[in-house]
Specification:
about 120 residues; mainly alpha; two-stranded antiparallel sheet
C-alpha cells in the first residue's frame, strides 16, 4: 500500500463490520440454546429425577438427628431397599419417619457415610 488510494473503500469496512456483528449474534444465540437444553441441577442416583427444593417433589433433603451430613430421601430407593421386608408402597417422608424402617435406614446411611 503505497498511497491512501490503495486502501479499501469505506463500504468494504462497513460490510465487514456488519458480517462480524452477525456472526457474533449467531454464536450468542447458539450458546443460549445450548445452555437452555443442558441439565442444570443434580439428579437422584437411584431414580434419576431432578433434585429440587420443592414441596411437591418426593425427595427430601434432611439429616438424621445425631449424624452429620445431608440425607436425600428417595421414596423409590427406600421402597426397593426394604421391599423384601414388606414395604409394598412408596411412603412420604412423614410416613417414613413413623415406620419401622426409619432406624434401619438411619443405620444403613451411617455405615455408608462412615466409608
Amino acid at each position: 500500500m503505497d498511497s491512501i488510494s490503495d486502501l479499501p473503500s469505506p463500504k468494504y469496512f462497513q460490510l465487514e463490520l456488519d458480517a462480524t456483528r452477525k456472526r457474533v449474534e449467531e454464536r450468542g444465540q447458539q450458546k443460549r440454546k445450548r445452555t437452555e437444553s443442558q441439565h442444570t441441577g443434580c439428579k437422584c442416583r437411584f431414580c434419576q429425577m431432578e433434585l429440587k427444593q420443592d414441596p411437591n417433589r418426593p425427595h427430601i433433603h434432611t439429616g438424621f438427628p445425631g449424624l452429620t451430613g445431608k440425607y436425600i430421601y428417595c421414596p423409590g430407593e427406600v421402597s426397593s431397599l426394604y421391599k423384601d421386608q414388606s414395604t409394598e408402597k412408596e411412603t412420604t417422608w412423614n410416613e417414613f419417619q413413623g415406620s419401622a424402617f426409619y432406624e434401619t435406614e438411619k443405620k444403613r446411611w451411617e455405615v455408608e457415610k462412615g466409608k
